[in-house]
């Protein structure tokens, strides 16, 4: 068995082989590895996936969690044998680092609680595995020689700069100190600087790859490769396929988030990044790439608007992380030494001013940086720390910042959130946390307040989820009030809550207070007024519409013949006219009934004959008109002829508003014929210049008509211009 207090790399272990013979092996030997296969990780399915896909992910995540729990339960020597010699374990861990969901990816995950629970459990198990892999001394008896531990890590690629960056972005929130120790333990200072230099080179290659894919060239820095001759033929962000644009933005979002998380958790790397001119390359990349990508996302047509909103949110997140990365580099390389008041303060101040001066040509980047971290506050810090600083130079910088705002067509907005904590140098720009307004891209600010909601809401949700991971019993409304009180600094909020040092106004609040619900504005359709409201085709107020009455273009299947053959209107009117078919000559009235019940009138013929010959009203004033009606009764034929005569006379003299055009043409033709007959005019024979077909001969009339046409054709159209010109010249109108 292993001896006590001997490093694992020097221990010897005696075991029996498969044949039962004893053998002595080093404690770290491939034969001591257990035969267990670790399956690679796959990310959770997107929201809206099938239940089978969800079940498949749950089973896979459960397998990986059980295998890693078994690995963590192994003793020190067995654990390291499995880590060093089991390649399937390394593939499993690498797959999780590559494909595990990041901050903005959780919005697309299924809302199933089972998926969230298993993902959280797997996330914790993977973190504990890497944490144990980064620990060379677990106890006094279980440890590895530090130099040998470094060789094991280096030769087996257990940790490298890309893995460290992924560890920071995945496990950095809430575990910054542990992750910081994980990064610093495997390497000594010289090896770490070498690895960081290689990492910076690869990060710069990421920027060059994005520029190349977008058909752009970085003007503010020396490119890693010379410009290719066929660069003008490359596709741009507006001409590339939508899938390529999506891949570029996702790649940019993941890269910028990873770089910022690494520098934020491991500030010692800022000096290495700064020494490789990373700051100037990043600002030039921002100025060149961001406007082009924003234009492509906003102008191009997307079939799925949710995908367009997601890309816009990720691009906004990328812009914010690049701005924060630049500020992080300036803070750790220039501002922090000035605040500490050590030696060479003047040198650091000069370097900070030099960086600000280099920002002046990058108008878009400078305005975005000044919006999130006001440069005027940093200059105020320098003036307080170094009273002898050149005011002319600072004034020039401030004028350049204002010029950048003017060139972008935006108005500088002053932050309404002031930090609650004061320090020796009360400056907001040097130590400002994330504000509620957040970073808004150029197009967001132009489109108004609604465009900034996506980035600000995503950032606020990220802060709340970070705090609730550690303090799940607190309500989001209470945490939101704490964030507003402490300038949206999540670490300060967590620290004050745990140490019970909240301000008095926060102590009075209910700690389970939910997040206030935003009142949605009434929709445009609810307040609209239209003449077609509530009709049968109003789809905004009706759930069902008769689609048989809606068609595009000419209605299919409808023709004139079918319309004329449609006799349905006759059947509709048949019941109406059936009432006139039955004619009754006599109606027998039963005793006790009257004629009115059968619709009959009370006509009395004897009463009518009694008064038929009497001249009723003969002596009245209008008796002449009454007497004149008697002859109409005695002579009905004469009355009909006279009535027709007077009717015709009345129609002739009647002032008709619109007369029949055919009647008017007939009257005009009759008048013309009568006039020609009176004057003895003989109508001209119609001309026939067409004649018979060729080869059949022409008549004399056709020959004469053609000669007459040829002789008189200069009287019409534009054929008589020479004749008219001669006429004008003869009259002296045109000089000869």
TrEMBL record:
Residue intervals of the CUE domain: 459-502
GO biological process: regulation of DNA-templated transcription
Record region (Disordered): 1-22, 671-736
Listed Basic and acidic residues bias regions: 13-22, 703-713
An example molecular function term from Gene Ontology annotations: ubiquitin binding
Protein name: Activating signal cointegrator 1 complex subunit 2
Taxonomic source organism: Sphaeramia orbicularis (orbiculate cardinalfish)
Lineage of source species: Eukaryota, Metazoa, Chordata, Craniata, Vertebrata
Gene: ascc2
């Amino acid at each position: 068995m292993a001896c006590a207090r001997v490093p694992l790399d020097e221990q010897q272990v005696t075991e029996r082989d498969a044949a039962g013979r004893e053998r002595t092996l080093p404690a770290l030997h491939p034969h001591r590895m257990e035969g267990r296969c670790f399956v690679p990780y796959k990310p959770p399915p997107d929201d809206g996936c099938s239940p089978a896909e969800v079940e498949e992910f749950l089973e896979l995540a459960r397998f990986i969690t059980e295998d890693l729990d078994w690995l963590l339960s192994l003793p020190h020597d067995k654990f390291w044998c499995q880590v060093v010699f089991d390649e399937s374990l390394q593939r499993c861990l690498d797959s999780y680092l590559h494909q595990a969901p990041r901050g903005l990816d959780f919005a697309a995950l299924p809302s199933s609680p089972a998926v969230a629970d298993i993902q959280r459990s797997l996330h914790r198990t993977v973190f504990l595995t890497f944490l144990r892999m980064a620990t060379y001394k677990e106890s006094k008896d279980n440890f590895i020689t530090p130099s040998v531990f470094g060789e094991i890590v280096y030769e087996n690629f257990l940790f490298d700069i890309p893995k460290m960056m992924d560890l920071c972005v995945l496990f950095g929130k809430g575990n910054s100190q542990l992750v910081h120790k994980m990064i610093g333990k495997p390497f000594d200072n010289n090896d770490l600087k070498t690895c960081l230099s290689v990492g910076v080179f690869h990060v710069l290659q990421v920027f060059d790859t994005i520029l190349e894919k977008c058909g752009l060239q970085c003007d503010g820095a020396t490119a890693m490769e010379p410009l290719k001759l066929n660069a003008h033929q490359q596709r741009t962000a507006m001409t590339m396929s939508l899938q390529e644009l999506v891949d570029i933005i996702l790649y940019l979002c993941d890269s910028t988030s990873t770089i910022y998380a690494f520098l934020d958790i491991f500030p010692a790397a800022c000096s290495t990044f700064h020494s490789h001119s990373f700051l100037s390359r990043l600002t030039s990349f921002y100025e060149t790439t961001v406007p082009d990508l924003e234009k492509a996302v906003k102008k191009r047509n997307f079939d799925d608007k949710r995908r367009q909103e997601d890309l816009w949110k990720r691009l906004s997140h990328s812009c914010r992380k690049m701005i924060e990365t630049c500020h992080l580099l300036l803070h750790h390389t220039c501002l922090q030494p000035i605040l500490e008041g050590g030696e060479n303060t003047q040198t650091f101040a000069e370097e900070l001013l030099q960086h600000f001066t280099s920002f002046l040509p990058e108008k878009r980047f400078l305005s975005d940086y000044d919006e999130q971290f006001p440069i005027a506050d940093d200059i105020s810090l320098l003036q307080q720390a170094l009273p002898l600083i050149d005011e002319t130079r600072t004034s020039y910088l401030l004028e350049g910042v204002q010029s950048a705002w003017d060139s972008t067509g935006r108005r500088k907005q002053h932050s309404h959130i002031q930090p609650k904590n004061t320090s020796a140098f009360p400056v907001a720009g040097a130590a400002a946390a994330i504000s509620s307004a957040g970073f808004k891209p150029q197009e967001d600010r132009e489109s108004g307040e609604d465009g900034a909601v996506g980035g600000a809401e995503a950032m606020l949700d990220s802060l709340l989820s970070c705090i609730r991971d550690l303090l799940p019993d607190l309500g989001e409304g209470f945490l939101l009030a704490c964030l507003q009180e402490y300038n949206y600094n999540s670490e300060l909020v967590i620290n004050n809550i745990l140490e019970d040092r909240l301000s008095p106004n926060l102590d009075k609040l209910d700690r389970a207070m939910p997040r206030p619900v935003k009142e949605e504005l009434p929709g445009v359709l609810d307040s609209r007024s239209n003449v077609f409201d509530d009709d049968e085709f109003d789809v905004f107020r009706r759930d069902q519409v008769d689609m048989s009455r809606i068609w595009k273009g000419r209605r299919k299947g409808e023709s004139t013949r079918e319309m004329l053959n449609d006799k349905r209107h006759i059947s509709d009117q048949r019941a109406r006219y059936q009432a006139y078919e039955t004619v009754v000559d006599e109606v027998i009235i039963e005793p006790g009934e009257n004629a009115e019940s059968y619709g009959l009138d009370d006509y009395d013929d004897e009463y009518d004959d009694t008064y038929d010959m009497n001249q009723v009203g003969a002596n009245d004033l209008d008796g002449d008109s009454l007497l004149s009606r008697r002859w109409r009764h005695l002579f009905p034929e004469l009355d009909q002829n006279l009535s027709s005569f007077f009717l015709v006379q009345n129609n002739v003299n009647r002032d008709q508003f619109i007369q029949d055009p055919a009647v008017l043409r007939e009257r005009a033709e009759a008048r013309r014929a009568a006039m020609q007959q009176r004057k003895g005019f003989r109508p001209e024979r119609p001309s026939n210049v067409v004649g018979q077909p060729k080869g059949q001969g022409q008549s004399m009339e056709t020959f004469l008509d053609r000669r007459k046409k040829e002789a008189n054709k200069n009287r019409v159209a534009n054929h008589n211009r020479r004749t008219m010109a001669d006429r004008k010249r003869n009259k002296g109108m045109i000089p000869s």
